[in-house]
Every structure is written in structure tokens, then in C-alpha cells.
Amino acid sequence: RSKSESDADADADADETELQTPDPLSYLHGFDAVPQISILKDQITAACHLQGGDHMLDIGCGTGTHMPAYSQKVGSTGSVNGLDKSRDMIDYCRTNYGALPNTSFTVGDVYAPFLPYKSRSFDIIKEDRVLQHLERPLEALQEMHRVLRPGGRMVACNPDFRSFQINTLPPQYRGDARRPPPHLNCDLGALTQRVLNGVIPTLCAHSGLGLSLPTLMQRVGLDVELRIVAVPLIGRRDLETVVPISYMSRLSWKNGGISEQEMEMWLQRLEWEYDEAAGNPMMGVLNFYICRGIKPNDDDAGTTLSLPPIGTKLPNPSPPRSPKKPVSIRFVTPRDTPDFVTECLSLINTEYCHSDTGITLSSPRLRPTDIHHMVHQHQLMVALCKDTHELLGCVQVLIKDPTTTETTETNSKQGGLPNLTIDGKIGEFTCLAVKSNTRATIKHANTQNVTVEISASETNTSKPPQTNRSRGIGAELVRAAESHARHKGCTRMQLGVICPSTAKDSIEAEPEYKVWLQHYYRSLGYEHRSTVELDFELQTDVQGENVVVKDQLHDMYDVLHQLVPCKAILFDKQL
Predict the structure, then answer these.
(1) How far apart are CA 160 and CA 215, in angstroms?
(2) Which residues, 6 or more positions from 248, have their beta carbon under 8 angstroms from its beta carbon?
(3) CA–CA dist 426, 416 (Å, integer)
(4) If I label 423, which of 240, 268, 306, 568 is the partner at 20 to 30 A Cα–Cα?
């Protein structure tokens, strides 16, 4: 054999083991052609309850299979708008369905602010297996909610891949006298579960999204009905079409869930186990969650359409927390008055004193030079009451690029927290402060005897001091900071909670406010990544005074100094 022939065989072997992702267009065509999937699609269409004159938005329209039916139902006075992130899908839809009356197709992103429609534009919004692929499904639902008119319907369908199972009952229990050959003799049920465990978490961004879908839709303010549809997949062909098990076994191997030998054994055992010609087809099942949410009417928006039920009506939870006051959010600029900048400085310093920060660090938090630096570097974001223009909160937003070595405002000695191991730009926010009705006073600043006293504000002297912050302002500022970072090309957002180090490394040993703060950031979608002990060392000088000779916190933030050993609890979120 020649060297070229050997190399060709080696290339062929490499191609066989190479993991090829199914072609999206081919996969969707095959998916829609499965009879049980057609029944599922009909149930989704029924849940939409399309009427003549309805204006419909189909999020992730894919191949547009149901566009003719939708166009017919809404009639000449309605419209159907297909949106997909894939230009190939949109081109396919325009070629095959572009001639349908009152039908249009748009390349677009469901995340705010990229959904290219005005608020309250649609009577019905349909989404089918899109949210499971999105890192931030709640934000996508919020944007869909924005363009849905009051009284309108949002219908979403997503599977819970964790529910997927294959019939693995051993032959002796199903009346089959055959026994597997020695090289295929294994616990098929246990091996199948290992294969699935090795692949299900990586199939999409949220493989169990179906089960979370009702709660997410309620979270954006919809009245939700739920129907769970168990889709039976009978025969190897339907299984491979809907849930491509051969591809999944290779992916499970690549992920380290099973060995290559176990992958081969599993696939061969399935071939041996099931014989469709003998009336013993392979059978699997996957649960799909169909949710229909109704956007409540405004007081003057008329009546809601009477709809036939699709399943279980979920009880309405407590209304989502939203700002008590309508706010506008913007960056502070050098054009703002010195008094306004000083007010921002005072707000940050005062509200940070409410926490145990004053016990951990020297104070004041910021100096006038620091706040002016933020303003000139376009880092200080504020929330103002729309009606009174009162300052309600502020946050510092940093954009950091770990790939550059240049000394800029985002890559200087005072560049903030240690970067997590992430490629590309990173957003970071700090100094999140929201106005409250109490006042904090620091005593013995810049010493280890520092204390913080909380007192009632001048307008609330008759009541005991309580920290009563403007509800929802902090979350609005964080979302605005994330949107800014995303616009600047950041892939993640990070933050740090600075705490005193404790001998017992547990959340219970941390100050109460810091524990609350960690739960708060988790509620905004942030995940704990690591905890970093900050370098700190005291030495005694000749006068017997303690002198700080190591202070990593000061290395990160020029204005801050440690008075005691501290740690940075790092959180981040994919944007």
C-alpha cells in the first residue's frame, strides 16, 4: 500500500469519528414530518386561537411550515410576521412562502433592544423550541411581552430533555426468549442512563427549560395555562429524527460521560435489541410543555378574548417587583452640574455605609477626584425619577479587555476585580447604591475601630431607623449596566462582594448584609464563580502602631484600604 492510500484511510477514519452537528434545515424538515410531532404542532396552533384580523409574530419561524395555515386564519385584515436569527432560514421562508398575503419575514434577535417592532404590536406571539437555546430566556420573554398588546396571547413550547427515555425493559421481562451475546451483555437501562446523563446537559443552553417555562412566563406578568404533552417516538427512524440518539451517544463520549467502547456497545445493543419487522420497535418518549400566557388588560384596553382552555390554569403568583417610581437611566457627563455630581458622591458613600463595608474597609468610599474620574470616563450611570428628576440610584460600570496591555481607563492599576478566565471583553459593575430613608455616620474612619451609626433621615425622625430603599431601582440599574456592556461587545458581566475573611468558610459566618447581597445578585441571574482571599499583612512599627504593608484591595481600587483580612466573592453572568 502506498503512503497516499494509508493517509486517505486515516483521513476517512478521522471523518468517521468527527462529531458532525446535524444540518439545521434538514433537521427541521425531518422533525416536522414525524407524525407525532405534527400532532404536537397542531396543539400549539390550537393554543394560539388565531382569529381573523389578528397580528401574529412567530419567534424562530424556522422553515415556516405552518405559515400557510397561519395566513389563512388571520385573513386579509391580519398579518403574520416570521422572525429568525438565521438568514438561511429567512431566505428559505421568503422563497417558499413570501407570496402569501399579509406575511413577512425578518432576520432578527429576540433580545432587547433588538426585536424590531414597536411596543404592543401583536395580538399573538408564538415561540417553539427557541427559548431552550438562549442563555437569558427571561430577558427574551420580557422583550416578547413588550411587543404583545394587552389582552394578547403568548404561546411557547419547549421540551424538558431530562424527561427523555427509551424502553430498556430486559428481554426476559417482555416475553423475548433471546439473550444478548456476551460482548453485548450489559445492564442496558443503566448504560442508557449514563449515555443520557453525559449529553442532556449540553444539548442546549437550558435542557430542562420546559419545566421552568410556566414560572418564567408568570415572572414577566402573564396569566399562564399549562399543557404537558408526552410525545411517543416509535421506531428507530422517528427517534433519530427527533432526538438523534446516535449523535447523542457520540456527544456523550466526547463529553466524557461514557467511554468509546461503551458508546459502541450501546449502539450495537440497540441494534440487537429491537426488531421492527418482528413487531418489537424501539420506543422512546419526550415531554413537551405548551404554555399560553395572557397579558392582562389595561383599565381602558377593552375585554380579553374568551379562550377555550388548553390545560391547567396556574394560580397567579405575587406580582413581580417593579420600581415604585418610573425611572429614566443615563450616564453622568461633564455637562452635569457640580452639585449633581456631588449628590451622586454623597449617595454612594452614604449607602455603602449602610452595609458592613465601614467595618471592613477604611472610609469614605469615594473622594471627589474619584467621582470626577468616573464622570469623565463615562462610567457613572444614574437612575432618576421621571416625574421629579430626583436621584434614586447610581452604579459604576467598567468595560475591561484582558487581551490588551495598553494602559487605559479600563486597564490601569485601578482596573477592578481580578479577571475570571474569560476570552474577550468583560463588563464589571460596582458602587451600586440606591437611595433610602436613613442616614449613616462613620466614626473613627481609617482605623480598626471604625464604626457605622444608622439614624433616621430628617424627613423621618419620628420613626425608628429602617433601611427602606426605593424598590426595583437596583435591578433596573443592573439591567441597564448589562445592556451597556453587551453593546460594548462584552461576553460576561462580573462583580465582587467584599467580606471580612472568617475562620469558618461558610456563608453563615459572613455579615448578614453580605449574605443578603449574594442572594440578591443570584436573583438577578449571577452565579458564584470563586472566592479570592485578598493579600493583607500588618506589621508593628517602632512606635508599636500597626501598619498595613500588604493591601490587595487597594491595588484593585485606589480609594479602598483593608483594615482587616478580606476576601472577594466573585460572581459573573453571561451576557
Answers:
(1) 14
(2) 195, 196, 199, 203
(3) 11
(4) 568
Measured CA to CA, the distance from residue 149 to residue 377 in angstroms comes to 40
378: left (phi over 0), alpha (psi -120 to 50) or beta: left
Q: Can you list the positions of beta strands (E) in 197-349?
A: 223-234, 283-294, 312-313, 327-331
User: Is the model's pTM score more than 0.85?
Assistant: no
CA nearest 430: which of 456, 458, 395? 395
- Alpha carbons 46 and 40: distance in angstroms, whole number: 10
Using one digit for the tens of pLDDT, what is the confidence trace for 237-282?
999 999 999 999 999 999 999 999 999 999 999 999 887 777 788 9
Pairing of the two strands 79-84 and 55-59: parallel
- Amino acid identity of residue 543, one-letter, is Q
Which residue reads 382569529 in cell numbers?
51
Taking CB atoms within 8 Å and a gap of at least 24, the contacts of 252-261 are 252/194, 252/195, 252/196, 252/197, 252/198, 252/199, 253/198, 254/19, 255/198, 255/199, 255/202, 256/198, 257/194, 257/195, 257/197, 257/198, 257/199, 258/191, 258/194, 258/195, 258/198
H/E element, 83: strand 79-84
Host H or E run for residue 450: none
d(CA 165, CA 490) in angstroms, rounded, equals: 39
Structure-block grid coordinates of residue 132 = 431552550
- What are 294's three cell numbers? 395572557
The reported pLDDT for the residue numbered 13 is 47
Structural element, H or E, at residue 396: strand 391-400
114-118, 215-219, 384-388: least confident range: 114-118
Among the ranges given (296-305, 354-363, 515-524), the one the predictor scored with the smallest mean pLDDT: 354-363
Which grid cell sits at 260? 468509546
Angstrom distance (rounded) from CA 242 to CA 256: 23
